[in-house]
Amino acid sequence: MVRSLLAAHDIPYYVHNAGYASLYPGIQIDLLNVPTVMVPPSLAESASELLGAYLPDVADHLRPRVERSLWHVLRIIVEGIFCGWCVPRIGLGRDTPTER
Questions:
Q1: Is residue 99 part of a domain?
Q2: CB 6 within 8 A of CB 39
């Protein structure tokens, strides 16, 4: 929606991580896989005013609330145990001698 608003008002923009952010699902890590919309510094104020009229209505929906229920904590613990057990470590096979 932000891209459409900026393009409709002829404000040039660049989306950092536009392709990579949607490549793999998973944890959202800022600067790694979260898309960030950037505009030139000279047009930042007009873009801010334009988006300021839109963003207050959807600010509650931009980032999900952190879930801290008992079920969520239990699921994280179980996933940590089973994912650590199922995913083998690379380079520590039976044939590879370990040096200390």
A1: no
A2: yes
